[in-house]
């Protein structure tokens, strides 16, 4: 049975902080299909369109009929553990530091037999298991066999924690606590077990609704942080950068303009200055600190969360300059992900549909509530996914975008 | 003769019999800027980005790029800033007469009143009482309203917002007209974020200092500091805005010359 995670002891400052190591990360292009699905939290395998055979490992042609028509389809993951073994020695640096490490073979009910990492509560073979896909520290999909039923403290399993970014006992920076979103995230992350939450607030002379409530939470430390001010970001990073395990960037400027309905560029600049340059400033100042602590014991630095927008995928002309700033932030977040990956730090991009706040007042429902967004972010950390599309609108746009980006562009420009 | 006067000025400066006092706040990212409702266009705060500092970006030199609004930090308001002054001649930072950049100042000490009441409004009666003591305000002088507001180094206390807006001292509508028409002042200066009071949108007309001063081609200075080091009369202010084409105002270094 998994032992409940306990608060780690304070670290011994005489010992060197270990550097991050990564599991083997090379994949063929076709195998990246598994990663693409796992990045969204889905377990998908190729299924032959001609003979319905489920494929594993990923391949170019059907192993049964040689058809090349092999679309990726979501799998339930139920199967039978047919063999398991415990790795006691490895020349791979990543596994060498983590042995003993349990591996197994699972025959999926849908056909193929797959190699899996094992949750500690899976009994020895033969046993019924549920297989899921997770991203490993290299950012690549691996398969994990879970017990077929939920067990206590399931998320606290030692091997599973190598694939997740659970906020429990971790220290979190929420960059802007002035908004409903920021405050909902602070509360959700504390409810999920975070030890300490630094909460940024720009322009401290503007007292915001919820300030007193936030200030009264014992885990919360409010600090002036303005993403438009390089000096502010640099100083806060110098102060707490070496302690932050999870950074959640909630700072955002959102105005409701396209190109033609407002003269001048200064609103668009304000959006870019926070949504794009703010992320760049944060990444330059906090990125190295997080990377340096990626293997710092149980409460190591693990994740970076960006709240983007589903408008980052395709422009929503009534909020056109905002969409553009989020598209820029999305692109930069991909760069950040590439630069954080060598340390195994997960960069999670969240693409909500319209959020229920003042700048979307005239957008009709459904809108994502700050609470639902916060729940989705905590879920994403616990599951270790990379891309999150919370809410019905985001889900629908994602489907349409994956199906035909050009069609979505037209649909969004003809409201 | 004029060479003589200037030599004398330099000699007096060197000897310390004329002292120079800096009335300027440091331009820093922390210094608060005027805040309008969020749906409106905003004045940018001061921001600074390092270009190089004797490093790979420029091995032998240090320099920065900075950005800010025309009304950031200690700054000058030109008549064109307000709609009432928009059609006046020579009303912008590049065209205001340069002789106006060096003018005498009268300093009205309202520090006790402002300490007791952050919404304190300067009145004609207050000015007349001051004049009874110090003499009539000379023509083409700056009138500087000392409130010690600049001693509020905490930005929240300096801005002094609550849910009804900002609470900072300033002049009432009547005194501004009195200063313009009866005393022919060159402009009005304050220590708070604006020449008008924090609640001045509720005065009639709204923002009377901006409305009447700029409407009459006069200037504003705000976010001043060290006014407590100036005598009530006898100081000379040097306040030259940047020569921004068609500019409505400009951050600037404001200095005062005083005799010891
Ligand atoms: Zn087939």
Tell me about this structure:
- The complex is a heterodimer of chains A (415) and B (260).
- Chain A is built from 11 helices and 14 strands.
- With 415 residues, chain A is α/β, with parallel strands linked by helices.
- The radius of gyration of chain A is 22 Å and the shape is globular.
- Chain A starts with 31 loop residues before the first helix and ends with a helix.
- The model of chain A has no long low-confidence stretch (mean pLDDT 96).
- By secondary structure, chain B is of the alpha/beta class.
- Chain B has one domain (19-41, 70-259): Putative cyclase (Glucose Oxidase, domain 1).
- Chain B contains 6 helices and 15 strands.
- Chain B has helices spanning 2-15, 111-116, 124-134, 155-159, 173-181, 208-215, and strands at residues 18-22, 47-55, 58-67, 75-77, 102-109, 121-122, 142-146, 161-162, 165-166, 170-171, 187-190, 219-222, 235-239, 249-251, 254-259.
- In chain B, the strands form 4 sheets. In chain B, strands 1-15-13-5-7-11-12-4-14 form a 9-stranded mixed sheet. In chain B, strands 2-3 form a two-stranded antiparallel ribbon.
- In chain B, helix 6 (208-215) links the parallel strand 11 (187-190) and strand 12 (219-222).
- The radius of gyration of chain B is 19 Å and the shape is globular.
- At the A-B interface, helix 5 and helix 6 of A face strand 2, helix 4 and strand 8 of B.
- Bound molecules: zinc ion (ZN).
- The site of zinc ion (ZN) has 8 residues of chain A, from loops.
Termini separation of chain B comes to 24 Å
Strand content of chain A: 15-25%
Question: What's the total count of β strands of chain A?
Answer: 14
The poorly predicted ranges of chain A are: none
Number of domains of chain A: 2
Major β-sheet annotation of chain B: 9 strands, mixed
Looking at the structure, what is the overall shape of chain B?
globular
CATH class of the largest domain in chain A: Alpha Beta
The CATH architecture of chain B comes to: 3-Layer(bba) Sandwich
Overall helicity of chain A: 25-40%
């Amino acid at each position: 049975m998994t032992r409940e995670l306990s608060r780690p002891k304070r670290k011994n400052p005489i010992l060197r902080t270990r550097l991050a190591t990564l599991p083997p990360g090379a994949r063929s292009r076709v195998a990246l299909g598994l990663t693409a699905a796992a990045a969204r939290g889905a377990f998908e395998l190729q299924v032959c369109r001609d003979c319905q055979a489920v494929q594993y490992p990923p391949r170019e042609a059907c192993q049964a009929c040689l058809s090349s028509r092999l679309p990726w389809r979501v799998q339930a993951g139920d199967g039978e553990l047919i063999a398991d073994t415990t790795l006691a020695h490895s020349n791979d640096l990543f596994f060498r530091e983590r042995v003993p490490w349990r591996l197994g073979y699972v025959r999926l009910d849908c056909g193929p037999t797959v190699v899996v990492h094992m949750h500690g509560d899976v009994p020895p073979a033969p046993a019924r298991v549920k297989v899921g896909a997770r991203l490993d520290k290299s950012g690549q999909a691996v398969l994990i066999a879970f017990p077929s039923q939920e067990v206590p403290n399931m998320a606290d399993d030692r091997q599973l924690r190598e694939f997740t970014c659970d906020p429990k006992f971790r220290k979190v920076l929420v960059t802007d606590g002035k908004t409903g979103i920021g405050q909902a995230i602070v509360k959700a992350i504390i409810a999920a077990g975070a030890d300490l939450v630094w909460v940024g607030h720009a322009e401290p002379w503007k007292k915001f609704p919820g300030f007193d409530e936030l200030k009264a939470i014992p885990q919360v430390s409010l600090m002036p942080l303005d993403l438009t001010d390089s000096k502010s970001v640099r100083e806060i990073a110098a102060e707490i950068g070496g302690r932050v395990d999870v950074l959640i960037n909630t700072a955002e400027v959102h105005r409701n303009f396209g190109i033609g309905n407002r003269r001048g560029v200064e609103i668009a600049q304000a959006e870019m200055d926070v949504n794009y340059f703010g992320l760049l400033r944060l990444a330059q100042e906090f990125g190295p600190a997080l990377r340096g602590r990626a293997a710092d014991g149980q409460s190591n630095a693990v994740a970076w969360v960006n709240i983007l927008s589903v408008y980052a995928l395709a422009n929503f002309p009534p909020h056109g300059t905002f969409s553009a700033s989020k598209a820029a932030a999305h692109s930069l977040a991909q760069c950040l992900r590439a630069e954080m990956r060598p340390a195994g730090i997960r960069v999670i991009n969240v693409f909500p549909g319209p959020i229920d706040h003042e700048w979307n007042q005239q957008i009709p429902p459904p809108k994502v509530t700050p609470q639902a967004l916060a729940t989705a972010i905590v879920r994403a950390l616990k599951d270790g996914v990379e891309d999150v599309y919370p809410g019905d609108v985001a889900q629908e746009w994602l489907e349409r975008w994956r199906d035909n980006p050009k069609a979505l562009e037209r649909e969004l420009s003809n409201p | 003769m004029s060479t003589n006067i200037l030599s004398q000025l330099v000699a007096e400066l060197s000897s310390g019999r004329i002292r120079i006092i800096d009335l300027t706040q440091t331009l820093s990212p922390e210094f608060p800027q005027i805040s309008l409702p969020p749906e409106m266009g905003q004045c940018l705060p001061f921001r600074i980005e390092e270009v190089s500092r004797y490093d790979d970006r420029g091995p032998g030199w240090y320099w920065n790029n900075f950005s800010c609004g025309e009304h950031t930090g200690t700054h000058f308001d030109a008549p064109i800033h307000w709609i009432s002054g928009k059609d006046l001649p020579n009303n912008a930072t590049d065209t205001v007469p340069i002789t106006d950049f060096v003018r005498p100042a009268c300093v009205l000490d309202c520090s006790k009143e402002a300490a007791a009441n952050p919404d304190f409004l300067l009145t004609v009666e207050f000015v007349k009482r001051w004049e009874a003591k110090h003499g009539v305000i000379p023509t083409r002088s700056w009138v500087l309203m000392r409130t010690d507001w600049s001693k509020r180094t905490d930005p929240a206390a300096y801005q002094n917002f609550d849910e009804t807006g900002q609470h900072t001292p300033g002049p009432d509508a009547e005194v501004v007209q009195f200063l313009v028409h009866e005393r022919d002042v060159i402009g009005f200066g304050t220590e708070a974020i604006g020449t008008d009071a924090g609640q001045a949108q509720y005065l009639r007309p709204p923002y009377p200092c901006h409305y009447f001063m700029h409407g009459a081609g006069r200037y504003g200075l705000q976010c001043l500091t060290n006014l407590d080091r100036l005598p009530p009369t006898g100081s000379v202010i040097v306040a030259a805005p940047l020569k921004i084409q068609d500019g409505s105002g400009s951050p600037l270094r404001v200095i005062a010359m005083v005799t010891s």
